[in-house]
Amino acid sequence: MRILLIAPIDTKDRFRGGISQYASTILSNNSNFWNSEIEFFPFNNCIVNRKPGTNGKLSFRNILNFFKTRKLLSRELKKNNYDAIYLNTSYGAALLKDLFTLKKKYKKKYKIFLHIHFAGFNNIFTKNIVISKIIKKNILSRTTNIISLSSQFKKELVLKGFDENKISVLYNYFDPMLPSINEDFIINKYKNINKPITFLFVGSLDQRKGFYDLIETFKNLNPDKINLAICGKPNDYKSEYTLNEIKNNKIFNYYGYVSGNEKNNVFLKSNVLVLPSYAEGLPITILEALNFGLPIISTNVGAIPEIIDESIGILIKPGDLDGLRNTIAMFSNCNILKNTGINCLKQSKKYTFDEFSKNLINILKG
């Protein structure tokens, strides 16, 4: 089964987000699928260099990227034989744009899997009734199957009139190349811990990820007791300004965009992952944190509530700064960190790449 995997594999100047990581890991572990007679072939739909923070916005370069993608996709499908198209997308205008790169006639020849890497129903379909209808119409006319990040989103799709038998739930995974952590490591980590406790944020530096809420919450706390490690690239001018504003505050440690061993080291040195997002799918960084035994502070959005329970973290409402501050204080206790960290390691076994691969194979061959 030859599958053309469409995703922003090379994002060029833009932030390398979860969809890019997701697609790249599948492609670099293609051999996991060969025994099931499945092979993925990459198609990058991020062709034109564009500024960070322009995702899903109407601009000349985004329009140019759309027409170039549509043209190159048509050429690729004429030149090579495939059994299926696997389109990875997000929500709103970006989702609609990605749908329009698929010509309606493709559905007659290929199985077309639409993987929506988001789980907020109103974000995906937008609150605009007209646009919502257009999105629904084009999902039905241009795709054959939907892959959802959460059970709740699947239920909402069924209520909207989509065929339940054509929708599959597939949770994300963490990178199989991450180091393996055991309980002894967690126990030793908190045996003689020296403060400050390190809270870790990994993601794009913008409003949707709750970055500014974090800055507001941490900036007046005691740097001798806690600090915040920030990993990610500025996604707009406001985030660049904010980074410059906090550069002399000892409570913040900014690492920029991290990957590989540098990223692993930041996780290993940290104690808690904090991601107070306003809207999400299922952030891979949360699954990575579980692998490293880091308790989770996040929000009850997207698929996160289906992953995080009170044994491994705490969820608050988006924008609840008091709740965020209180939760940070609670996770400054080493005994809580140790016990919760061990629970995180156990929970992480559900989100290995091997488990994910089995589930994806069942969906593609079902």
SSE topology:
Blueprint: E1 2-7, H1 18-28, E2 39-44, H2 60-79, E3 84-89, H3 92-100, H4 106-109, E4 111-116, H5 121-125, H6 129-142, E5 145-148, H7 151-159, E6 167-169, H8 183-189, E7 197-202, H9 211-218, E8 226-231, H10 237-246, E9 252-256, H11 260-269, E10 272-275, H12 284-291, E11 296-299, H13 304-307, E12 313-316, H14 321-330, H15 334-348, H16 353-365
Parallel strand pairs: 1-2, 1-3, 3-4, 4-5, 5-6, 7-8, 7-10, 8-9, 10-11, 11-12
Could you explain how this protein is built, in words?
The protein has 366 residues and is α/β, with parallel strands linked by helices. It is 43% helix and 16% strand. The chain contains 16 helices and twelve strands. Strands 2-1-3-4-5-6 form a six-stranded parallel β-sheet, sandwiched between helices. It has a six-stranded parallel β-sheet with strand order 9-8-7-10-11-12, sandwiched between helices. The longest helix has 20 residues, at 60-79.
Q: Overall mean pLDDT score?
A: 92
The best one-word shape is globular
Outline the biggest β-sheet: 6 strands, parallel
Rg, rounded, reads 21 Å
Structural class: alpha/beta
What is the N-to-C succession of helices and strands? EHEHEHHEHHEHEHEHEHEHEHEHEHHH
| Helical stretch tally | 16
Tell me the distance between the termini: 12 Å
Strand % is 15-25%
Number of strands: 12
Low-confidence stretches: none
Helix content: 40-55%
Query: Which strand order do you get reading across the main beta sheet?
Result: 2-1-3-4-5-6
